[in-house]
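Please go through the sequence and fold tokens given here and tell me how the chain folds. Record follows.
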Amino acid sequence: MKDRQPVIGVVPLWDEYRNSIWMIPGYMDGIIKAGGLPVILPFTDDENVFNQAAALCDGFLLTGGQDVAPELYGEAKRYDNIITCKTRDRFETLLLDRAIRLDVPVLGICRGLQFMNVSLGGTLYQDIPAETDSTLILR
């Protein structure tokens, strides 16, 4: 029998308009190509469900998505284009705290990396064009 593949818990993306979760296939495909077994995690406030799902995982992927709530880095929301998901922020807080406590690997992509930064005491620009003189072109 083949060696067990590491199970990677993937935080889903949230669609606030449809009240649903979804996933970009590239996240899942990348984990499989790297030798892992991706599992989409449920957004939940139920501690038992969270603990059981997280315990199955050897690592976690925090995906892209909505903005990290400015309140998490000590700021009030200043722009109308800031879209957050409080359920996801709470879920990822539990997940990252668990991963750090148990020394479980975590990869953050886009919003996921921003969330990790904020959770570890960092801050963010809420709106890069409005808050910097950057010549970066955003599409």
Q: What stands out?
A: DSSP finds five helices and six strands in the chain. Residues 25 and 123 are 30 Å apart (CA to CA). The radius of gyration is 16 Å. The chain has a mean pLDDT of 92.
